[in-house]
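Data deposition worksheet. Section B asks for the primary sequence of the deposited chain exactly as it was used as input, without tags or linkers unless they were present during the calculation. Section C holds the resulting structure in token form. Section D is free text for depositor observations; keep each observation to a single sentence. Incomplete worksheets are returned to the depositor.
Section A, Depositor: J.P.
Section B:
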Amino acid sequence: MINNRNYSYIVYYLFILTFLLIFLTFFCVFYKYNPISNYTGQIIKKEDEYNVHVYVPYHSCSDIKNESLVIDSKKYQYSIIEIKDGYYLDDNLNKYYEVIIYVDLDKQHLINNNIIDIGFVLNKTTLYQELKKLMKGWLI
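Section C:
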């Protein structure tokens, strides 16, 4: 048998749970952020100019635009010089295109054949949109 005291605790817990659920729903739908897509790049010196060569998966090529990227927690502006016509396959037969970009890097990075971690800043999105993409990927 439930007495009034236990019943009031259940009502309070249900109220708090409902409030948290509503807050989480609003957060997922309305909070916008810029996701970052991480890759490994190689700095190549060609004719006194340093360019970064990055292998990008086929399905992610449309996400990379002339905006900004992150290297060692510092934002840089970049421009795409070329996306090679041919593609490379890995062991799982995933396609990768070679994207050559120009970035005005610090001197500490300007070493021929230097390997760096690059994060491309993507367009703003919400957590709800990302979850919808993820669920769509699972269903296909």
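Section D:
The CA atoms of residues 134 and 140 lie 10 Å apart.
The chain has a mean pLDDT of 86.
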